[in-house]
Design brief:
This protein is α/β, with parallel strands linked by helices and about 375 residues long. The chain has helices spanning about 10-20, 35-45, 60-65, 75-90, 110-115, 130-140, 170-175, 220, 240-245, 265-275, 320-335, 350-355, 355-370; strands at about 5, 25-30, 50, 70-75, 95, 115-120, 140-155, 180-185, 185-190, 200, 205-210, 225-235, 255-260, 260-265, 285-295, 300-310, 345, 375-380. The protein folds into two domains: about 5-125 and about 320-370, NAD(P)-binding Rossmann-like Domain (Rossmann fold); about 130-310, 2-Layer Sandwich (Dihydrodipicolinate Reductase, domain 2), CATH 3.30.360. The strands form four sheets. A seven-stranded parallel beta sheet has the order 3-2-1-4-5-6-17, sandwiched between helices. Strands 10-11-12-7-15-16-18 form a seven-stranded mixed beta sheet. A two-stranded antiparallel sheet has the order 8-9. The radius of gyration is 20 Å and the shape is globular.
């Protein structure tokens, strides 16, 4: 029986474990939160082993994964790079959803030296959108533009933020502070996060705002195009609130001296916001994503549009963001485990999209989980 270790049992990690348990795989979940591990045991019983361990102690990761045929990394972004490095150094194939600030290709030489397949950024965005980009790039003679619009939102809007954190709240704030890298006229451009706000209408959802975030990542290296951008979607007004907090210093990490006590503004802000952003039991969310790629095929200009709209699963009590992120990861993990995808080194998801069998298999499996990615193809005027 194949053995998989999932590092991290948060909202998305729980969905990954749940999906992998359905195949009779031997799954081990590792997390520092005993309540999170208890929820897994209550739901899955003997199908999953749980280990309570603080994954910030990087020296212990090699021992935790030593009996694994494959590892899934689902830790917060600030731990992601070092955790991935330790898993690769231990010689274990790995699929990673942790959105870390570092360039994952810095670990490519190590992965090749260890003979490891390391699929990185393998969630929704980055993740599924990259798979689509790799697939379309293989269909066109030349790709000209790439745009991804994506966001996870609460179904019920509540003032003032009209937002619930559907993945690590710390990573959400990181999105609002890390400068966004774009490509314009073939040149890399850096813009502030939360900039270039525009209002867009989405069927069944309504009007949302889109603003710059740093989500292109590996695509800027692997599939360079003259124009590339990623924007995050929220209900209108959210970006302005976040800009006020950021520009007023509430997201600063450098401690302030308060009556002789050093206090980090970010730590205080996070504590306040996380309580307000926590998704309550049974509270529904919705995920919206649109990927648009334009290019040429022979003498024709073509536009490919991919739309995804997904909702909270009331039967399994799984958030939409956990479904779309976690199930994508779990499906790709199986493809690596069974040898369908075997490329050695650091492999962003666009490499899977370039493999016709992996791409088709991923969409079929997502469809079985009622996650539908709808494709539209348009011929454009010259």
């Amino acid at each position: 029986m194949s053995r998989i270790t999932v590092l991290g049992a948060g909202l998305v990690g729980q969905a990954i474990v749940r999906d992998l348990c359905t195949d009779g795989l031997h799954v081990k979940a590792v997390d520092a939160s005993r309540p999170a591990l208890q929820r897994l045991q209550q739901r899955h019983g003997d199908l999953v082993d749980v280990v309570c361990a603080d994954l910030r102690a990087q020296s212990g990761i090699a021992a935790l994964v030593s009996d694994s045929d494959l590892v899934v990394c689902a830790v917060p972004g600030h731990m992601g790079f070092e955790t991935l490095k330790q898993v690769i150094d231990a010689g274990r194939n790995v699929v990673d959803i942790s959105f870390s600030a570092e360039d994952p290709f810095e670990l490519d030489a190590l992965a090749r030296a260890r003979g490891v397949t390391a699929v990185v950024d393998c969630g929704l965005a980055p993740g599924l959108c990259n798979v689509v980009a790799g697939h379309v790039a293989g269909l066109l003679d030349a790709c000209e533009t790439y745009a991804c619009l994506v966001g996870g939102l609460p179904q019920v809007r509540r003032k003032p933020f009209e937002y619930r954190a559907v993945f690590s709240p710390a990573d959400v704030i990181e999105e609002y502070t890390r400068p966004a890298r774009l490509v314009e006229f073939g040149q890399p451009v850096v813009r502030p996060a939360l900039s270039d706000v525009e209002l867009l209408d989405f069927p069944q959802v309504g009007t949302l705002e889109a603003f710059n975030t740093d989500g292109l990542r590996t695509l800027m290296r692997t599939l360079p195009m003259p124009s590339m951008r990623e924007k995050t979607l929220r209900y209108p007004g959210h970006a302005e609130l976040m800009r006020i907090l950021r520009d007023s210093g509430f997201f600063e990490q450098e401690p302030l001296d308060l009556a002789g006590t050093p206090v980090s503004p970010l730590a205080v802000t996070s504590r306040i916001l996380f309580d307000q952003w926590r998704l309550q039991e049974g509270e529904g969310d919705v995920t919206v994503m649109q990927v648009v790629i334009e290019g040429s095929k022979g003498s024709e200009r073509v536009r490919y549009t991919y739309d995804l709209l997904d909702y909270y699963d009331t039967a399994t009590k799984t958030t939409s963001m956990a479904r779309t992120t976690g199930y994508t990861c779990a499906i790709v993990a199986r493809q690596v485990l069974n040898g369908r995808f075997r490329r050695v080194g650091v492999c962003p998801p666009e490499y899977l999209g370039q493999d016709k069998d992996c791409y088709a298999g991923l969409l079929v499996e997502l469809g079985k989980r009622h996650i539908d990615l709808r494709e539209r193809i348009e011929r454009l005027a010259q």
